[in-house]
Recover the amino acids of this structure.
């Protein structure tokens, strides 16, 4: 009986490990980008030993699980004219951070919004929002309206425009710039 | 990659034709998971499949696009990810930039207008490697690193209409 179980388990492991190996290869292939051929999922299938449908299913699953954060193209936003890139940081009282974080998430011109730890005494800010714009004046006007709309006048904040990108790269999505 | 080359490279703003703009806007929202995804997008935009393939290839070659395909969420893959900042005096800025960028773990590095003037993202294979990398950068540069990992994500909406 126990032999039967372990034989079954071996067979199962063999089946799973084949596909796990294929999935690992698929993940590695995908980090290099999607092939620019009419049937890219088929091309990936040929490189990984999976079927075209298995490739499509795996990508669907990874998207649903949040492992793949986005699927499409990654732009060099500066090259597209988004040269005014402001990191707006706020010192939000801890008891208000949930409400304000959620409120800012609904603001259309905010591209990213994260809570991060303060580093006292040098850095009192705990909420980080990115605004990517085509010019500074417009970004600052958007910020003024944000402050007025959400009554943030009494919240300490700072605006850190970036003036040089020394490096922007990566096959992995790191969600910040 | 030298600092000067990097900063020079970012200067020109791409001159895009209507098909390129339409594709950039469309593909920032993803690619359909069907057997012939480029043909599907081509039909939506009234282009040919070959035009879609050629245009994406051209934009990648020209550096307008960084990459095309699924982006894995580094944190979800079990790796480490953090945002870090440093306060670097002007006279030392160039040297420290080169030192920091020599670390493979540095994914983005931006100069920002603040007392903390150097901001970069660290992406490592394991969570534990973040602390080691932070220490190594401090040892190499001689300046402290302020490590500010994400505690909560409220919003990600990184789309850039053209």
């Amino acid at each position: 009986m126990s032999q039967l179980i372990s034989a079954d388990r071996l067979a199962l492991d063999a089946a799973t490990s084949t596909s796990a190996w294929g999935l690992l290869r698929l993940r590695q292939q995908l980090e290099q980008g999607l092939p620019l051929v009419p049937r890219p999922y088929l091309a990936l299938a040929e490189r990984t030993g999976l079927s075209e449908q298995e490739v499509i299913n795996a990508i669907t699953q990874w998207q649903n699980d949040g492992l793949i954060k986005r699927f499409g193209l990654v732009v060099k936003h500066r090259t597209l004219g988004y040269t005014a890139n402001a990191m707006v940081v706020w010192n939000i009282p801890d008891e208000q951070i949930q409400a304000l974080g959620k409120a800012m998430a609904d603001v259309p011109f905010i591209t990213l919004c994260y809570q991060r730890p303060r580093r006292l005494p040098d850095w009192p800010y705990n909420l980080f929002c990115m605004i990517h714009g085509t010019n500074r004046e417009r970004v600052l006007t958007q910020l003024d309206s944000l402050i007025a709309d959400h009554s943030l006048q009494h919240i300490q904040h700072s605006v850190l425009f970036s003036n040089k990108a020394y490096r922007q790269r990566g096959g992995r999505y790191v969600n910040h710039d | 990659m030298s600092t000067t080359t990097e900063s020079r490279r970012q200067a020109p703003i791409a001159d895009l034709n209507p098909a390129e703009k339409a594709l950039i806007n469309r593909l920032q929202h993803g690619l359909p998971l069907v057997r012939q995804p480029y043909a599907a997008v081509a039909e939506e935009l009234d282009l040919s499949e070959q035009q879609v393939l050629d245009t994406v290839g051209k934009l990648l070659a020209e550096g307008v696009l960084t990459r095309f395909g699924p982006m894995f969420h580094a944190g979800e893959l079990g790796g480490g990810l953090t945002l870090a900042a440093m306060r670097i005096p002007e006279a030392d800025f160039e040297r420290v930039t080169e030192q920091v960028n020599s670390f493979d773990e540095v994914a983005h590095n931006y100069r920002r207008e603040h007392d903390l003037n150097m901001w970069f993202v660290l992406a490592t294979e394991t969570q534990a490697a973040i602390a080691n990398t932070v220490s190594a950068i401090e040892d190499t540069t001689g300046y402290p690193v302020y490590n500010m990992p994400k505690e909560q994500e409220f919003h990600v909406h990184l789309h850039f209409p053209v």
